[in-house]
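Table S2 (continued). Query chain:
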Amino acid sequence: MTSTEAPRLAPLPARHWSPNGRALLRGHIPSADAYLADDADESAMPGVIGLFGHHPRLAARWIGFSGGLTTDPELPPRDRELLVLRVAWRTQSRYEWTEHVRIGRRAGLDDDEIAAIGGAGDDPGWGDRERALIAAADQMVAAHTVDEPTWRCLARHFDERQLLEVLFVIGGYLCLAAVLNAVGLPPDGGPDRTPIALPPAASM
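Corresponding output:
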């Protein structure tokens, strides 16, 4: 879908949520709970939460999984956000890219690094650790696995729990990017939420 088309599934306004639907989603991600209060500002609700309002039971299970990757991680947040942004770029997910550029900055990625994520992956500013993360994301998006040299490099930098989390971050955000792309959810607007340009995809 183009950026000018209406989403196939528009975010559900808060006034149309049932009390049970709100209750199902609360308690998984603290930053989301503010938008699920009964007196929350409807206009401030992120589009992805409004999208989840169409199926709170499913969304609660998803948020329970993805929330653990952000609220109680084994993987350092900077590494996680590098993976998420690489997935967002490879899948050309405008919503995921815009949201996670902001999150990535808070996690320690600077603007030069974020710009380099939308590139070939061999930027001289990356160390072996970052190159391995980028390669793992690329390989899982393209081939749904990680090759042996990349795995060996990852294993030099991460323990077993972190390695598993690397794979689940890539796989989880690949799933979410596909859903967001398929429904055509545009990035959130608002005074402080100007959409952030997504670098165009390149043939890999």
